[in-house]
Each structure stands twice: as structure tokens, then as C-alpha cells.
Amino acid sequence: MTRPYVIDEMISAKAIAARIEALANEIQAKFKGTDKLVVVGLLRGSFVFIADLVRELDLPVEVDFLEASSYGNSTESSREVRILKDLRGEIAGRDVLVVEDIVDTGHTLKHVTSLLTSREPKRLACIALLDKPTRREVDVKADWTGFEIPDEFVVGYGIDFAQRNRNLPFIGSVRFTDDAQG
Ligand code: IMP
User: Fold this and answer.
1) Of residues 101, 104, 131, 160, which has the active-site annotation?
2) Which end of the chain is more exposed for a tag (fewer CB within 10 A), N or C?
3) Is 86 a catalytic site residue?
4) How far are the Cα atoms of 20, 21, 45, 100, 134 from residue 15, in angstroms, in the given order?
């Protein structure tokens, strides 16, 4: 059982859509002329973001997924990153875009980008919908970020708390209602 909580809207569905359109234009400019861009979604939090992002990209794309270990039922990150599900396809010599939901401590993105770099893609770039820069523990930054947010636990638009709230169309912050601070 999780503690009781309410969700306060932080970023509206409309603001997310507008930001994705702008980001897609920048990605298109960077990868213009590519024979194929392999868009790699990090499961499970990026599944809504990747779905909206690829539909804004006017490029030949292939979609693949990779799953790294996450928080489980906690709101605290574990520092050790494990690959639970690897890519189906080869990325050697290919253009690759890694799609992450949130860069928090940075351990996941750092681990995934060094793993994928070792497979010798032609170009590797990363996009994160959200970034919590004040939480960073390792030196890593996505090439594109949707929104910088404060150190708050968020849900919605694919992002969960203990597997709940992924289906909210907006990003909201979790506020525990049993907390005396309210
Ligand atoms: P990092 O390795 O600490 O950067 O954590 C990255 C992963 O932790 C993200 O891909 C999310 O799955 C998860 N995460 C980080 N912050 C949050 C949050 O506020 N809500 C839900 N999941 C989060």
C-alpha cells in the first residue's frame, strides 16, 4: 500500500504538446538526411512521450525499447542500474535517439548512454521530457530537455508512482496527504 496522496497539475497536456512540436523540429534539423533514426524508448516511463514524439518527426524512424531497473515502489532512486530488457535491433553505424522520461540522479541515462556508445552507433543523442537538475549525482545531460522541474516526485504522461497514474494526460506532482506539513 502506498501512502494517501493527491496530484497537483504541474505541466498541462497542451504545454507538453507544444513543447514536443518544438523539440521535434530541432531533432529533425539535427538528423536531416539520415537514412533511418533508431528511436530508443526507455521503458516504461517514456512510452507516451515516444508515441507523441515520433508522430511529430518527419524522418524515417525505427522504434525500439530498452528497460532499465527503476525505483520499484519507492520514490527514491537506487544507484545501481540493471538492464532488464535489451534492444531487439543492432545500432552499430546507425543514428540513435534515446528517449528518457526524467533525468533525476542521472545514473540511468549515464549507464544507458555508455552501454549504447560501446555498440558504436554513428551518432547518439538523448532527449528527456523532464530534468531535475538539483538532484544530479553524475555528470550527464540530455541533448534536449522538455522541461526543467524542481525536486518533486511527479506522475502522469507515462510516468508512474508504484505503477499508478501513468494514464494522466498531464504531469502532476505527488503531495502526500498524511504529511503534517500538508
Ligand atoms: P535516475 O537514474 O535517478 O536519473 O532516474 C531516472 C528514472 O527514475 C526515470 O527514468 C524514472 O523512471 C524514475 N524517476 C525519477 N524521478 C521520478 C519521478 O518524479 N516520478 C516517477 N519516476 C521518477
Assistant:
1) 104
2) N
3) no
4) 9, 10, 19, 18, 23
Q: Which tens digit of pLDDT belongs to each residue from 150-170? A: 999 999 999 999 999 999 999
Distance from C-alpha of 154 to C-alpha of 150, rounded to nearest angstrom = 10
CA of 6 relative to ligand 1 center, distance in Å: 19
Strand partners, 126: 98
On whether the CB atoms of residues 12 and 173 are closer than 8 A, the answer is no
* Among 73, 101, 161, residue to substitute to test ligand 1 (most atoms within 8 Å of Cβ): 101
Bridge partners (DSSP) of residue 124 are 96
100 CA closest ligand 1 atom index: 10
Structural domains of the chain, with CATH: 14-149 (3.40.50.2020)
Whole-number Å distance, alpha carbon 169 to ligand 1 midpoint, is 18
Do 138 and 80 contact (CB within 8 A), yes or no? no
pLDDT tens per residue across span 47-100: 999 999 999 999 999 999 999 986 555 566 667 789 999 999 999 999 999 999
pLDDT of residue 179: 73
CB burial of residue 147 (10 Å; 0-12, 13-18, 19+) = middle
Dist. CA 8 → ligand 1 center (Å): 18
